[in-house]
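Re: export button greyed out
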Amino acid sequence: MTATDSPVRDPNRFVPERAQEAGGSMHAGPIQARTRQLPRRLQRVLRSRVVDLATTPHGVDHYLSMVNPLWSLDRTRALLVDRIRETHDVTTLVLDPGPAWGPHEAGQHVRTQVDIDGRRRTRYFTISSSPRRADGLITLTVKAGDDAFVSRFLQTHARPGLVLEISEPRGEFVLPSPLPDHLLFIGGGSGITPLMSMTRTLLADGYRGRITFLNYVKTPADRIFAAELDRIDAHHDRVTLVTVCSEEDGDPDTLCGYLEQGHLDQVAPDWREAPAYVCGPPPMLDAAEAIWEEAGALDRFHIERFTLAAPSADVNAEGCVKLADSDIELANDGRPLLVQAEEAGLEPEYGCRMGICKTCTTRKVKGVTQSLTTGEVSSDDDQDIQICVNVALGDVELAL
Amino acid sequence: MTATEMPTPAHNAAGTPSAPGRRDGPIDDSVLMERTGITEEQIAELAREFDAIRDRILADIGEEDAAYIRSVVKAQRACEVAGRVLLFVPTPATWLAGVASLAMSKILDNMEIGHNVMHGQYDFMNDPHIHSQSYEWDTAAPSANWKLSHNFMHHTYANIIGKDRDVGYGLLRMTEDQAWRPRDKYNPIYGTLLALLFQYGVAAHDLEIEKLKNDENSWDEVQDVARVIAMKTAKQDGKDYILFPLLAGPNAPAVAAGNLVANLIRNVWAFSIIFCGHFPDGTAMFSEEEVEQESRGGWYVRQMIGAANIRGSRLFHIISGNLGHQIEHHLFPDLPSRRYASLSAEVRDICERYELPYNVGNLREQFGSVVRKIWRLRKPDGSGGPDRVERIDLHAKDAPLDQDRINGKEIPLAASRAAERKRRAREAAASAPAAAAS
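Workaround output, generated via the alternate export path:
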């Protein structure tokens, strides 16, 4: 094992810095010295009707957030307290979500929002920590992909003291109840994060069954949680941990390449019987789905798709426009989304129809859109777009 | 890409002809051309120039704009809290300071924050606290109604009599093109009342009561809007005239009076800035027919010659919501307001090159011009004013534009050349039958 394999502690940890220096953070100020949360009784007073009337029309939260974003009564905000470098392109962020945070279920994710270059950006990250963690902190393990704006920002600029807005934990990719006596985990790259949360939770709970864990990585240096996984492998007989590198290392005894049925047969011949949890890049998920389909075991097959294939910008009139609130799905015909919604029988509010008045502004839940007036491509989830001048590039979901 | 290439229907939900650059049928800017002397090619070129400016700014929007509006919001909140606290202290000096601080808070909230945020200028931030879809301002008019009447009706149809409901707010006679009614003899009184009660005027404006008459809106619709306005107004007035005075205990009368004066100051200030934006002499008004087939470039021209700027300091522009840059605002209503100042030199340069007027004056000049107009138009023929004009006609040789208003250049402007062409055409038409007769 080389030096880069082991997790390197970030030298900046616990150094209080002005969040502003993080290069575009949510709120400025040395937050760490401040009270984490207001006393319950004070919160009750602040939520009263008198305070609501006194602060109309803005509401008390506007004023509180201005003093300390962590005092928000309406929003869940988390304080970044530490960063742990996992590999050359993966970092774990340790967050304090505050006492109001309800424990998540292992495998769930959170919507994470951070201000970058004056814009609030949204990304979803799986929680890699176990809800059994005693200090109440959660961790998000973030990989900086080429186009992953938020991830790259969090990796390179986010310093302790940064405040992030997070959602309640969400997601159905969770452990079954009751627990079976054998679980099969297959993780590819940073897709290991929900499986890590599950493994940590199972071990903390003294799970008595077997865990077969296939970890697909590019090279040994790309193993996330390497030291912890090695420790688990050494101390727990019922955990079978197999690392599979896609790049061959010349050793005939180790598995290599991408997920195939042969790997499963070799590591756990009874793989068809165990509930399988698979998370990784889209090609891996497709391969896995094909294997379980052929084995007729899809009822025991669970996957988490955590990346969307980004459609290329020059392809028009592809994909499907989903109008979520009206439960309508249309084949995208390349025209502005407002026109398509109208032809589907909806009457969205609109004004100028030329991108000026913003009456038609609608929340894009997911997908990629492009403005005809500015050419700007919006690829983030949960963005407001002017549907009169935006066209869909591939699948798009609107809150209409 | 211009909006003319966009496939959009020709009418909006109410069946009215839709906004510029998206009409079916031929484009016709002839009235604008006649009134300004600009050519069809120039209009197309001008549209490209403005589109390019817009694209350049859009590409540059980011951190600095976000930091700016956040700092204004911070200043507003600080003024608000300071104002409320100072008013609780029962001394004349703190009362005065409290009124000033609270008035400043309301002015910042309404002008630089509310108006501009609700235009969507800062929607790029994606921050729900500073977003056109969620911002609510410290004034009687509910944001939702105002956004429709202002963003859509006023900005799309700026200065089109009968469509732009901001021309006189349905109350004042602001141009000779509005037919005189007997009640217009009270024009100056209405003007004074509107200035003092401006926040309620803006709220009532959104009721669109005049649409009841021609059955465009039903009584039920008006009632629905009225309910929303009543709710908002009740909360606003409940806060200023009941809750805070009660909290002040024995100092209640002083607090209520302070809040009232702060509201009045804001009302008069907002009224002044807004009326200086479109109604000083030299701004052009249009009829619906005149601009029915307007191109995108024509839309830019109309926005430009229908607006007037106010010269002032940096602080003046902040507390007027940068509406002293009304021309730039009307050209680019959704660009962050802090950009207008830096755009004005460029816009002015374009005006000079295309020989279009750029109406700018200081607050005294512009507001004086508005006040005189309100006074003058109490009479059917608008007589009695020193600078009386039948109609703001840019090519009229005696148009009351001082030199500053025409880029510091001597009159005649290009418009007078157009007037010359028009006169010659009339003469030719007049002489033609005569020639035929002989």
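Chain A has a mean pLDDT of 83. The button fix ships in the next patch.
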